[in-house]
Amino acid sequence: MKTxxxxxxxxxxxxxxxxxxxxxxxRPNIGNRDAILARLGEMLDRRWxxxxxxxxxxxxxxxxxxLGVRHCVAMCNATVALEIVARALGLAGxxxxxxxxFIATAHALQWQQITPVFCDIDPVTHTLDPARIEALITPRTxxxxxVHTWGTPCDTARLTEIAxxxxxxxxxxxxxxxxxxxxxxxxxxxxxxxxxSFHATKFLNTFEGGAVTTNDDxxxxxxxxxxxxxxxxxxxxxxxxxxxxxxxxxxxMGLSNLDYLDDFIATNRVNYEHYRAVLKDLPGVKVxxxxxxxxxxxxxxxxxxxxxxxxxxxxxxxxxQAENIIxxxxxxxxxxxxxPYRSHFPNAGLLLPHxxxxxxxxxxxxxxxxxxxxxxxxxxxxxxxxxxxxxxxxPRLTSEPAHG
Length: 404
Ligand code: T4K
Prior knowledge:
Blueprint: E1 23-24, H1 33-46, H2 54-67, E2 71-75, H3 78-88, E3 94-98, H4 103-110, E4 115-119, E5 141-147, H5 156-166, E6 169-173, E7 181-182, E8 185-186, E9 193-197, E10 210-214, H6 217-226, H7 248-258, H8 261-279, E11 285-287, E12 301-305, H9 313-322, E13 325-326, H10 341-344, H11 353-361, E14 362-365, H12 373-388, H13 390-396
Parallel strand pairs: 1-13, 3-4, 3-5, 5-6, 6-9
Antiparallel strand pairs: 2-10, 7-8, 9-10, 11-12, 12-14
The structure holds ligand T4K.
């Protein structure tokens, strides 16, 4: 493996990349291949592939038990789950959401003609800032959607208080927060409902998948109808619905991975702590703090590159990606700067100073079971080398926009 002595040793300037194969932020966690294949084999023998099969029912039960909630409704992905639960909760008009989130949070609302009203985030936690919400409430507002960004819980107590006092529904996008806890309770039981993602890149994956959890019996009944076209039995449709069902193959993957949850967390945690230890002395670079004292999945390792850093976030991105270290700029540039929202609210950024700042700073680094301390040390070497040679580096960096 190459070592970095001079600028021309960087892949950006023509040297071979540090890694022959790309290091990704979201390499899927795959627990036990034999267990997955055995479940898939049984599924094929049963010839029951979808439509509330036994594997989906078992997956829902195990999730509900793990999260300590009354109901877990498995779905085909978190985006459709958000759409379905938004409709089941009667969201309409305007809903307050952070702009610093994956575009699906906003799109799930806009897809059904609900206007996402973007609210700024707390610059430390990167989650919705409750102090900014009330100024955005209008007579058209029907709900708040908080996002537990990077697995860090929103300020659920203040959001619940605001929602109750103002008569609003409260939903959480918990796509990043599976198996995380808050105030001694698992994420999944806060607000009216919470939505998880089990996409391939997520800490617990079902290839594609999602789930809604709730303690509200009536809501759970509606969700079950809505994800299955509104069928209440053969030939009997009693509700408007869509197809949001999870397949048996997805549940087979989820069940098999559930057995390895603690292993995934342990691996992620070791990586997170190693990153924190080796990056702590790099000037202008700080690893986002996942917090202590509560359960976390450590799925994302998020570096923040300050504006006065000798190498900018986007320059680091280009340098790393050339070395096959596929870091990402989640959630740049913020939903409010993406279509159709950019056209709907061209000046939204004025009310979102922390969102804009954090979106310019964040660099998500590769982690997961495909990465270990050797790779992390090499990533640190690239960042440290770039900083140490920033003066010579700057004139050689082109102004090409970064990707990712
Ligand atoms: N709400 C929030 C807050 C979310 O973050 C998300 C999804 C959602 C809602 C919606 O959930 P779903 O409807 O997806 O269930 C990825 C994921 O596709 C997306 O699920 C996730 N958030 C988002 C944060 O990341 P992209 O566009 O960055 O994906 P992509 O294809 O670039 O993959 C990310 C990395 O993972 C790459 O470095 C490649 C690697 N990868 C990817 C796949 C699919 C693999 O190594 N293997 C794979 O199979 O969105």
